[in-house]
TrEMBL record:
<protein>
    <submittedName>
        <fullName>Putative S-adenosyl-L-methionine-dependent methyltransferase</fullName>
    </submittedName>
</protein>
<dbReference type="InterPro" id="IPR029063">
    <property type="entry name" value="SAM-dependent_MTases_sf"/>
</dbReference>
<keyword id="KW-1133">Transmembrane helix</keyword>
<keyword id="KW-0175">Coiled coil</keyword>
<dbReference type="InterPro" id="IPR053223">
    <property type="entry name" value="Prob_Methyltransferase"/>
</dbReference>
<keyword id="KW-0325">Glycoprotein</keyword>
<dbReference type="GO" id="GO:0016020">
    <property type="term" value="C:membrane"/>
</dbReference>
<keyword id="KW-0489">Methyltransferase</keyword>
<comment type="similarity">
    <text>Belongs to the methyltransferase superfamily.</text>
</comment>
<keyword id="KW-0472">Membrane</keyword>
<dbReference type="Pfam" id="PF03141">
    <property type="entry name" value="Methyltransf_29"/>
</dbReference>
<feature type="coiled-coil region">
    <location>
        <begin position="65"/>
        <end position="103"/>
    </location>
</feature>
<keyword id="KW-0735">Signal-anchor</keyword>
<keyword id="KW-0812">Transmembrane</keyword>
<dbReference type="InterPro" id="IPR004159">
    <property type="entry name" value="Put_SAM_MeTrfase"/>
</dbReference>
<keyword id="KW-0808">Transferase</keyword>
<dbReference type="GO" id="GO:0012505">
    <property type="term" value="C:endomembrane system"/>
</dbReference>
Length: 464
């Protein structure tokens, strides 16, 4: 009887098709895998391959994984350095053939143990104990961001959110208070930890210049500190208000340790080594008395009486945004106008000088949002600080912040702003973009390549 081969043919054909299909799937999976490795940077030796390939996040549900990893690496580095140091010492000892005759004093031995062994080991121990792992509550992680970034305990205590003692919402409508530090503090970790390294309740170090350097470089606002501010050892009570406005203060009221000068006489314009250059004659009262009250040959020199005449009786409070010793505020006080003066101690005690004259200094940098509410200031005056050196985009942020706090109908007084002639159109646009009403506008030459620009502008109502 003849046997049919049809069934065998059908089974073989079916198996062949399955093999072809599986082979195609293998090729597709292989290509997709290769593409995934390539997109993750595997073939380019990208250091972030694991993070990209496995989807690891820098911050996982509010917990800073990268800071934790950095802290672990820091501890490992300390332990490795300690091990290498000890191994080096052992090798040095092995090179000495006659150990019996080689005498090492107990003082040297103690110093070696303390500085090269105990201190590094203790530092690694503290850093390891301060590692904070995420707490899991209701199936989710709950931890403070950046808690593992800093070593100094005072910083860690400061940035940790503080819960209310009774469990209810506080006056802000929150159950926790979050203390703020500037984002730049992360990139200036070493300087911030130096600033926050103190004994609680003791006297602070004379380190205001460290704080100012942090502020200027974006670590602003700074954390609060729990140490006592130092004052001058020879501090005297300020002069009475009827004398202090136009009199050089007592130099004993200033801590001079971080300045080139050691008294107010040294800050004379005649001294080329006084340590500052931005504010000419600021500490010479005879020259200061002439500002904004006497006519000059420059069209860009406006007088206070002319500016106040634009809005008679309406200017009551304002901001002087610049660098100086408070003379503009002193002159405006004579017209019953209260002015807050911004100041940084750039080479001289500007803040102390303003305060000792009986005026209000505001210790603030260019890169900080002004601590005033919207539409509250009658006047903003600026001179001597924000000039043609400033980046246009930074200036844009500053001007929009001024516009925010200036009330409708308030005055913006641009006083002797100077820049290169070729940049004048750019800066003019910056001031005119807000469509303020022009009351005064003047341009005069400063030098061959530079010009002065002064303007008195009124903010429109914008009642929406």
């Amino acid at each position: 009887m003849k046997i049919s081969c049809f069934p065998k043919y059908r089974i073989g054909r079916l198996l062949g098709m399955i093999q072809i299909l599986l082979g195609g799937l293998v090729i597709i999976v292989s290509i997709s895998s290769l593409f995934r490795f390539y997109s993750a940077g595997f073939f380019m030796h990208n250091e972030d391959i694991c993070k990209q390939f496995y989807g690891v996040k820098d911050v996982y549900e509010g917990f800073d994984v990268m800071s934790l990893s950095a802290r672990v690496d820091e501890v490992l580095d300390k332990m490795l350095k300690l091990q290498e140091n000890l191994e080096s010492k052992v090798q040095q000892m092995e090179k000495i053939k006659d150990l019996v005759n080689n005498t090492v004093s107990m003082l040297d031995y103690k110093k070696f143990i303390e500085e090269d062994v105990i201190h590094p080991l203790y530092g690694a121990h503290i850093a390891l104990r301060q590692l904070r792992l995420p707490r899991v509550e209701n199936g989710t992680t709950n931890e403070d961001p950046l808690i593992n970034t800093f070593v100094t305990e005072e910083i860690r205590k400061y940035i940790t959110p503080k819960e209310t003692r009774v469990g209810n919402k506080n006056i802000y409508g929150s159950q926790k208070i979050f203390n703020t530090i500037g984002h730049g503090c992360v990139s200036m970790k070493k300087e911030l930890e130096e600033y926050m390294d103190y004994d609680i309740g003791s006297f602070c170090k004379d380190d205001w210049n460290v704080a100012q350097n942090l502020m200027i470089n974006g670590c602003d606002p700074l954390p609060r500190r729990r140490c006592l501010t130092r004052a001058s050892k020879l501090y005297q009570k300020p002069y009475p208000i009827n004398e202090s406005l136009w009199r050089i203060p007592d130099g004993r009221n200033v801590r001079w340790s971080n300045y080139r000068c050691r008294n107010f006489e040294c800050l004379s314009i005649k001294n080329p080594k006084r340590g500052y250059s931005k504010c000419t004659g600021c500490f010479e009262m005879e020259k200061e008395k002439l500002k904004w009250v006497t006519n000059t040959s420059l069209l860009t020199d406006f007088l206070i009486k002319d500016a106040l005449a634009v809005k008679p009786g309406e200017i009551r409070i304002g901001l002087d945004f610049g660098i100086g010793t408070g003379t503009f505020a002193a002159r405006m006080q004579e017209h019953n106008v209260t002015i807050v003066s911004t100041a940084l101690n750039l080479g001289a005690p500007f803040n102390e000088m303003i305060a000792l004259r009986g005026l209000i200094p505001l210790y603030i940098t260019l890169n900080q949002r002004l601590p005033f509410f919207d539409n509250t200031m009658d006047l903003i005056h600026t001179t001597g600080f924000m000039d043609g050196w400033i980046d246009l985009q930074l200036m844009d942020f500053i001007l929009f912040d001024w516009d925010r706090i200036l009330r409708p109908g308030g005055l913006l007084w641009i006083d002797r702003f100077f820049c290169n002639r070729k940049d004048l159109d750019d800066y003019m646009y910056m001031f005119l973009q807000f469509r303020y009403k022009k009351h005064k506008w003047a341009i005069s030459p400063k030098s061959k390549d530079e010009v002065f620009l002064s303007a008195l502008l009124e903010k429109p109502p914008r009642s929406l």
